[in-house]
């Protein structure tokens, strides 16, 4: 009976140690990924004004095309009036 308890204690200790090591390695990887994501976030924030300009320009171009289409007798869906 003492042998079984000793084996169980050793196996449990090995399992806890292995789990702890994998948890620590995972946390190190999460930290690295967070630092990389922070760099990507800074790049996105630097590019935000240009992205807003692109979307704003797209909206302006669409409105301009729609207004020009009115002069040529076309509605917004491309059909004739």
State the main characteristics:
single chain, 81 residues, mainly alpha, 86% helix, rod-shaped
Summarize the structure.
The protein is an all-alpha fold and 81 residues long. It contains 1 helix and no strands. It has one helix at residues 2-71.
Commentary on this structure:
The protein is about 85% helix and about 0% strand. It has about 80 residues and is mostly helical. The radius of gyration is 31 Å and the shape is rod-shaped. The termini are far apart. The model has no long low-confidence stretch (mean pLDDT about 85).
What's the mean pLDDT score? 83
How are helices and strands ordered from N to C? H
Query: The biggest beta sheet, please?
Result: none
Number of strands: 0
Topology readout:
Elements: H1 2-71
